[in-house]
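Lab notebook, page 48
Experiment: co-folding of the full assembly
Goal: obtain a model of how the components sit together before planning crosslinking
Operator: M.T.
Materials (sequences as entered):
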Amino acid sequence: MNENKPSASKRALNFLGNNAVPIMFIIIIAICIPIAGFSPTFLLNEIVTRLSRNAFLILSLLIPIMAGMGLNFGMTLGAMAAEIALILTSDWQIWGIPGIVLAMIMSIPISALLGLICGRILNAAKGREMITSYIISFFMNGVYQLVVLYMMGSIIPIVHTNIKLPRGYGVRASVDLTRIRKCLDNVWSINIAGVKVPLLTLLIIALMCLVIVWFRRTKLGQDMRAVGQDMDVARAAGIDVEGTRIISIVISTVLAGIGMVIYLQNMGDMATYSSHSQIGMFCIAALLVGGASVDRASIGNVFLGVILFHTMFILAPSAGAVIAGNEVIGEYFRVFVSYGVITVALVMYETKKRRAKAGMGAQLAAAQQEGDKR
Amino acid sequence: MSEYINESNRTLLDRVKGKLKEFGLPRLIITAFLLLMFIIAPFTGANFWTQITNVINRFSWNAVLVLAMVPMVHSGCGLNFGLPVGIIAGLLGATLSIEWGFTGPMSFVMAILIATPFALVFGLAYGWLLNKIKGGEMMIATYVGFSVVSFFCMMWLVLPYKKPDMAWGFEGTGLRTTFPIDKYYGGVLANFLRIQIGRLVIPTGALLFFALLALAMWAFLHTKTGTAMTAVGSNATFARAAGINVDRIRMLSVVMSTWLAAVGILVYEQGFGFVQLYNAPFYMALPAVSAILIGGASANKASITNVIIGTILFQGMVTMTPTVMNGLINLDISEVLRVIVSNGMILYALTRKSEAVR
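Observation: model returned without errors.
Model output:
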């Protein structure tokens, strides 16, 4: 069959349809920037900070998408692992770069174990990975609370009273990370026209991008894509489908753990019981805003998403204050937009899947008719 | 002769085993746990009858919300994680009824009447969406619920409510996050025909109200449309071949579920005594989902019995654990336990092989 080139208008329409979410965001931001009235330097500073803070976390979502497991709401598990590691390193009073590196290393076995459990559960729930991983994050949040609120200090030794609750066990609602605050960001940072650029953190993120690009070309990466395309075909080709799926979740969880350490060192303060609860939702929303879908996401989507989503985040409260005379409205608005974007992306994915199925049926029918004619 | 006895023994054992398997291990553990709680409770100094009263009370608040799960499970739409859509309709009914000056039992009736058109419209839109995305209902339902709740977070601030009982006094606009409804419909069902024997208090009205709705649901499921709904849920292709309009039946089930959620939140509020707005409805679907699962339902099978047993077990666990744990070891891990058990139950249901068929 020769390829019919679609007309220019049709192509433009297709482009609009495929990139509706990013375009909508650019419009919202374009409207909000003059209303909010921030200086460009302030805005750029904030964007660069948030880019270096969040990009690694969002990169952790790419691999399960590749393996056809959808948006990994279970990345929260990695965040919990990182928090446990940071509680312990703060209690051992290991600060600065050594503290950050140790926290990253310690988070790895915990995330790997949690990822393994998550992967195994997801294998038992094929076809509804997303809702299952979403519930797993809730379930594990309970387990996390059990460990941090009741076991730390009673079974797992915690010495310092500024971390331990006055009753003798359990960790306080907030853990002070001032002494590792921005340690990574400050190692090598330059100032470009008043905008502080944390080069080392950005370099680590860039390195991670390269690793992901390289990983896609390895045997394991190819296997994952095959599994993502069609599990039965992959199995027929001799790929260990279950194992590959578990590995993809383990990698994602471990990366999320490391990403969470980077995130918290930038924040310099950790809300023990709530830091992780929203992180999955915001990361996923950011990725989708960047133009990703449930079955297709690239590194470009990550960066575009972080910039657009977080610009909206910075602007919304002040824009809300000007438009509706109430800053709280802006805050509710950004939460609404985050949920709305995820909803729209999920709906688009499901309708596309159905249409593809219907299209295949129609093709089959047409082919059959043609066969009958002959 | 001995052979015969052996035979009958084995079948009896098998039957018991079969029943146990049907009942499910997690359910068994929860039931045993609750029984253990009831046995231990008196030793910790808690009054047995007060405990029973608490459980019945909580049952009467929550049962309608759990009942709202039934129609969508029957029509194959899965567990209604989008319950907050209906809850928002109920909250609109509640706030408008109070705003327009209704008081006492009348405000409850009016709240239901006002909530109904909202529930219909929301349910139709929500059902239309769910028909577009068959197979991915649960995840999308969750996020539709979240989107609606967060949208209404803005609306509660913007809508021109004026009643001083609900609105922020100093600004004059925007509703409060929580406000009491003693003057309106607080306890309106629970106090109707209330029975008090010593420490045991039975909120007869609320129980009767639930019984009425449950009976109506049971009757509906035995009508022609109700049977069609079950058929759609068990095999959509077969149902379509039998001439049933699958999309319309699914739509009907979503509207029913949404309306029941709206009524359910009003019943909850009359028991609780407060209306909670803004972020409160976000996670209200999860307890209802896990309650019906604990009661023996699965992602595509649910009965009124499941609702009753599930609500008693779940609410029993929620109310009994804190008192017993506190009295016993002076350590309140009930909240954590509730999170683990309720979400563990949902996970268990999601990973059952038999239910993966769609």
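Interpretation: Residues 49-282 of chain B form one domain.
Next step: discuss with group before ordering constructs.
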